[in-house]
Every structure is written in C-alpha cells, then in structure tokens.
C-alpha cells in the first residue's frame, strides 16, 4: 500500500510540475502566435513528458532506445525551464508587489521574463551538452597509514554507464587518456553499465577498446547499482567484463605486487539485485586478507564509507556524479558526507576519494561538474 501511495504521490508531483512548465510555454507561444493550436501543443508536450517515464519501463529495445534518447535531452530542458520559469515568475511577482512594475506594463514584463527564462534555458542546456563532451584529469597524492614499499600509481574511473547516450562515443578518448597516465593499477568503481546490456550499441567495439587499457598490474572493477539484473542481462554483463580483460572483484580481494590489498565491494542497493552473489559483511572479507599490507577498497556508493575503520587505508567511490547538473551538486553535498574529492575524517580514518564519474547518466549534460579521470599517487 505504501508503495502504491508513494507512486501516486510521485506521479502527481511530476504531473503538477509538468502542468506548470507546459502552461508557461503555451502562454509564451500563444502570445507570439495567437492562432497556434493548443491541442497540438498539449499532445506534443504530454508525449515529451511521458518519454522520461517510459525510458524506465520494460519496453522492446528499439522503442526503449528511442524514448530514452528523446527523454534524456528533454529532461535537461525541462529541469531548466522549471528553474528559470520559477525565478522569472518570482521576480515579476515581487516587482509587482513593491510597485516596481506599473500595472499597465505587467503583461509586457511577463512576456520578457518568459523570454529571458527560455533563452537562459537554451543557453545553459547548450553549454551542458558541450561540457559533457569534455574530459578532465584530476590528480591526488595520498600518504597511506601503513607503509607502502614504493609508490603505486592508480587511475580511478567510475560511472561509464555503457548503453547511455553518447557513452560509447567517448570510450576511445577515455582509454587513450588512461594510458597516457602510465598506471600501475586501473580501478573502475562501479556503474560500468546502465541497467541493460542490450542498450549498448556496439558491445564488441566497446570490449575491444577496454581491452586496450594498459596497466602494469591490471584493470579491476567493482559493481554499482546500475550493474544489477533489472533487465535480466547480468550474465551478458559479466561475460562482457571478462572479455574486456577486466578483473571483477565481487566482495573479493587481490594482492597487488605483494604491496597492496585491493578489495572490490558489491553495491548495497543494486537495481534488480545481483543474480548469483550477495554483499558480504566487510569483516568476513577482511578475515581472509593480509592486514599487514595497506588496504584499498572500491565502494561504488560513498554513502557507505562509515562501514570502514582504521583497517582500511583508502576508499575509492563514484556514484554521485557530483549532482551532474547544477543545482544537483547542492543536493549531493547535503546528502553525502563527501560527494566529491578527497576526504579524511581524522588521522585514524580511511582516506576517501570520490570521483564525479567519467560519463553522464540519463541527461547527456554537465553543468557545474565535469567528466573526469582520477590519477592517484599512493605513497
């Protein structure tokens, strides 16, 4: 019953917000084109609004790809239409309340306020689309609590989201940039996929590119929430990872050059669950490791960093995308102890590095955030 009520509430809120945005757009169009057909506008707008919902439904793959493509771009416009229409309405309301806007000019001011909102939306979305095609390198130096026999160069990425909009287009650049950093170890901290293996346009090409990653001791990965079995394709996902010469650590560990223990955690909340494995208690994993060596943990979601204590030297996470588009970063900053960057609670606690991710999810946009590859020098 609670699930049904929650779904009804969510749909009601989504419907109400769409009514507001749609009404403002229709008012603007009607002002410019008084004879514009309102029914046609309503049908087109409703279809656009539905694409966002339908993209999460179990549909035939060609239909799902189409609605997901349209919905991904429309969502970016929708978010900023909502923000800028609300701001423009608030500005007009305040201006009218304090008599700054004469009554006879109110209609014209409302028109220009809506014009500004639409132009700002177009500008921000265009910037976001451009910025999502850029790739940034971020570097950290981390002094581990336990001594390390010689420096180790780790390259961290997360949130490839293969199968999402433009994900495969960037893969060649990502691999080239990783190799340019001459890594000893490459860590992929979850969300390799975007829920459904068959949403990947060319899996063989993607696998071949990933096999081109060059690391002294190998490429390792852990699973994220979007790597679950929601679409019933997790077996194909696991085969893809193996073909790509990526060593998957499902609550398992690997000793790197007898100098470092690398542990990969299963995500705690996979969408659709994990087919054949379950997340273990960390103490169960730790009991089998060599605790005399520094320990690095790949934990996709930084919401779980409190599960680790002084026994761990470094946690590598992703997941947050740092909100991906502003003002999403304000939300992730409020939700997570650390949503981005390097963090250490105190000298006895693990170092934590959270990446914004190397790709986008759903909306192919970045506003106030970046796609990034992280280079970590462990000392």
Describe the structure.
The chain is of the alpha/beta class and 379 residues long. It has two domains: 2-131, no CATH class; 136-378, Purple Acid Phosphatase, chain A, domain 2 (4-Layer Sandwich). It is 40% helix and 15% strand. It contains nine helices and twelve strands. The protein has helices spanning 2-32, 38-54, 61-97, 106-131, 171-180, 203-211, 234-243, 282-286, 328-335; strands at 136-142, 152-157, 185-189, 219-222, 246-248, 252-256, 260-264, 295-298, 314-317, 341-343, 351-354, 372-378. The strands form two sheets. The chain has a six-stranded mixed β-sheet with strand order 1-12-2-3-4-5. The chain has a six-stranded mixed β-sheet with strand order 6-7-8-9-11-10, with no helix packed on it. The radius of gyration is 24 Å and the shape is elongated. The chain starts with a helix and ends with a strand.
Structural topology:
Elements (H helix, E strand, L loop, with lengths): L1 H31 L5 H17 L6 H37 L8 H26 L4 E7 L9 E6 L13 H10 L4 E5 L13 H9 L7 E4 L11 H10 L2 E3 L3 E5 L3 E5 L17 H5 L8 E4 L15 E4 L10 H8 L5 E3 L7 E4 L17 E7 L1
């Amino acid at each position: 019953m609670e699930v049904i009520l929650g779904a009804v509430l969510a749909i009601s809120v989504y419907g109400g917000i769409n009514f507001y945005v749609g009404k403002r757009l229709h008012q603007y169009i009607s002002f410019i084109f008084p004879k514009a057909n309102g029914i046609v506008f309503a049908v087109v707008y409703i279809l656009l609004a539905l694409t966002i919902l339908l993209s999460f439904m179990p549909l035939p793959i060609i239909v799902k790809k189409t609605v997901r493509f349209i919905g991904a771009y429309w969502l970016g416009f929708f978010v900023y239409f909502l923000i800028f229409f609300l701001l423009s309405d608030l500005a007009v309301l305040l201006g009218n309340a304090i008599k700054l806007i004469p009554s006879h000019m109110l209609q014209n001011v409302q028109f220009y306020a809506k014009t500004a909102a639409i132009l700002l939306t177009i500008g921000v979305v265009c910037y976001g689309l451009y910025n999502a095609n850029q790739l940034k390198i971020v570097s950290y130096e981390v002094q581990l609590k336990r001594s390390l026999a010689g420096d180790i160069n780790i390259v961290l990425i997360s949130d490839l989201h293969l199968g999402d909009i433009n994900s495969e287009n960037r893969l060649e650049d990502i691999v080239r940039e990783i190799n340019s950093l001459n890594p000893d170890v490459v860590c992929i901290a979850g969300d390799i996929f975007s829920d459904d293996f068959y949403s990947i346009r060319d899996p063989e090409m993607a696998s071949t590119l990933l096999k081109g990653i060059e690391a002294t001791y190998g490429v390792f990965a852990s699973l994220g929430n979007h790597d679950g079995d929601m679409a019933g394709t997790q077996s194909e996902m696991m085969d893809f990872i193996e073909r790509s010469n990526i060593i998957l650590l499902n609550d398992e560990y690997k000793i790197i050059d007898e100098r470092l223990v690398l542990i990969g955690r299963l995500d705690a909340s996979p969408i659709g669950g994990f087919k054949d494995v379950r997340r273990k208690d960390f103490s169960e994993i730790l009991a089998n490791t060599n605790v005399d060596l520094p320990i690095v943990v790949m934990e996709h979601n930084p919401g779980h960093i409190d599960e680790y204590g002084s026994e761990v030297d470094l946690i590598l996470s992703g997941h947050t995308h740092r909100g991906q588009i502003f003002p999403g970063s304000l939300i992730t900053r409020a939700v997570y102890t650390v949503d981005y960057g390097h963090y250490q609670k105190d000298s006895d606690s693990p170092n934590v590095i959270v990446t914004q991710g190397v790709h986008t999810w759903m909306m192919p946009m970045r506003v106030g955030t970046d796609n990034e590859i992280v280079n970590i020098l462990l000392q």
